[in-house]
Write a structure and sequence with these properties.
- The structure is a homodimer.
- Chain A is of the alpha+beta class.
- The first copy, chain A, contains 4 helices and 3 strands.
- A 3-stranded antiparallel beta sheet of chain A has the order 1-3-2.
- In chain A, α2 crosses α3.
- Chain A is globular, with a radius of gyration of 15 Å.
- At the A-B interface, α1 and α4 of A face α1 and α4 of B.
- Chain A binds a DNA duplex through α3.
DNA sequence: TTAAATATATAGGTTATCCTATATTTATGC
DNA sequence: GCATAAATATAGGATAACCTATATATTTAA
C-alpha cells in the first residue's frame, strides 16, 4: 500500500501523538503500535523517541518511568495545543472526510 | 491561530493539491487560495510552485497554459494515487474527526 | 549470574514542506 | 511602446518527519 503511494504522506506525527495521548496514557512502544494500526506502518524507534523528546522539551507531554516503560501524558499546555491543533486539522482537511461514502 | 500552535502541522501538501484538483481544475494561485481558506494561511509562491513541479515530474498532474495561467488537472495515475492516498489518510486520521461534536 | 528480550536513546542521512527573496513571463492600462 | 500588475519560476535556508544502525538500560528467563 505505502509502496503504491506516489505522493508524500508524511506529517502530523506530533499531532497524532498528542491526539492519542488525549485518549489515554501510553508509553513509546504503545504509541508506535497505535500509530502503526492507523497508518499501516509502525514508526521505528528512531522516529518515535525523538518526537517524544521534542514534545517533552516543549512541555506538551510529561513522562513517568514505570519500570522498563516511560508512560506519557499531556500537560495542561499539551491539552490546549491539542485542542487548537484539532480545530486546525479539521478545518484544513474536513472536506476529505466529508466526501467519503459519497 | 497558527502562532499558538506548538506542534508542527506541516504536511500533506501534495495530497491536498491532488484532492482539490480531483474536484475541479485549477491554476496555481487558485490552489494556493483554496488551501489558504482551509489552513488559515495561504501558501507562498515558493511553496506551491515547487510542489506543482514535483507532482508534474511524477506525472500525477498535467498543466495546460491558458494565457497568463497554467491550469492543472489530474492524470489517470494522479486519480489512482489520489484514491489510495485518501484511503490511507482516512484510515490514519479518521478517529480525529470521529470525535468531533462529541 | 548470565543471556535474551524489551524499551528507550541517539547519531547521522534523506526528503517534503514551509519560508524569503529575486527573477521571469504574460496580460493590461496609459 | 512602456509601466504595472498578476502568475509563475527558482535559488537558498530551516525544520519535522521519516529511515538505518548502534548503544544503553531494564526486566525476565535459563
Amino acid at each position: 500500500m505505502k509502496g503504491r503511494m506516489m505522493c508524500d504522506m508524511r506529517g502530523m506525527l506530533s499531532f497524532q501523538i498528542l491526539f492519542l495521548l488525549s485518549k489515554r496514557h501510553m508509553h513509546g512502544e504503545e504509541l508506535a503500535t497505535e500509530i502503526g494500526k492507523r497508518r499501516g506502518d509502525k514508526p521505528k524507534a528512531g522516529t518515535i523517541y525523538p518526537a517524544l523528546k521534542d514534545l517533552k522539551s516543549k512541555k506538551l507531554i510529561t513522562g513517568k518511568r514505570e519500570g522498563k516503560l516511560i508512560v506519557y501524558s499531556l500537560t495542561p499546555s499539551g491539552r490546549e495545543t491539542m485542542k487548537y491543533a484539532t480545530d486546525y486539522f479539521c478545518r484544513a482537511f474536513g472536506d476529505v472526510f466529508a466526501l467519503r461514502g459519497k
